[in-house]
Specification:
By secondary structure, the protein is mainly α. Among the domains are: about 1-50, no CATH class; about 125-155, no CATH class. The chain has helices spanning about 1-10, 15-25, 30-45, 50-75, 95-105, 120-125, 145-155. The radius of gyration is 25 Å and the shape is elongated. The N and C termini lie far apart (about 90 Å).
């Protein structure tokens, strides 16, 4: 009997990296499926739910959903109050806030075509601030130098 259990344990391996990736991506349903698959393989026909494991997954999912509502109400929604900021406020801010509100209300992530590349957005915005650009202290070859040259060209 011990050999059969040992063979099963060698065959079934819990992929910690996969589980960690699911947690980091807040894919709790995927994590639940992954855990249930492992439990099914380990237990075979005598399957038990293991409420302690499942409870932890559900608790993490609920905490994440509550966090999303708090982030929306505390941080996203107030962005609409910056009406006087015409220079830096995106023209589609209201639409973007509504999209995020729908995601929070429906408890679903945005569609693939609505997901922004955060790194790309940060880089695009920060390019407008020459001091954020890497380079020499005097910023030779920076956006600032380009703008100074462009203004000088138009003044000629």
């Amino acid at each position: 009997m011990e050999d059969a259990v040992g063979a099963t344990l060698k065959f079934v391996k819990f992929d910690v990296d996969a589980a960690e990736g699911l947690v980091q991506n807040h894919d709790y349903r995927g994590l639940e499926e992954h855990v249930l698959e492992i439990l099914t393989k380990v237990q075979g026909s005598s399957f038990y739910q293991h409420p302690g494991i499942l409870f932890s997954i559900y608790q993490a999912e609920i905490a994440h959903l509550m966090e999303a509502e708090k982030v929306f109400s505390d941080k996203v929604k107030p962005l609409l109050n910056h009406n006087s900021d015409e220079l830096f406020r995106p023209a589609d801010l209201e639409d973007r806030v509504k999209m995020v509100q729908n995601c929070v209300n429906n408890r679903k992530p945005p569609a693939a075509d609505q997901v922004e590349n955060i790194f790309g957005v940060l880089c695009d915005y920060l390019l407008y601030f020459p001091r954020c650009m890497p380079g020499d202290t005097d910023r030779k070859g920076s956006v600032s130098d380009f703008m100074v040259g462009l203004v000088a060209l138009f003044r000629q």
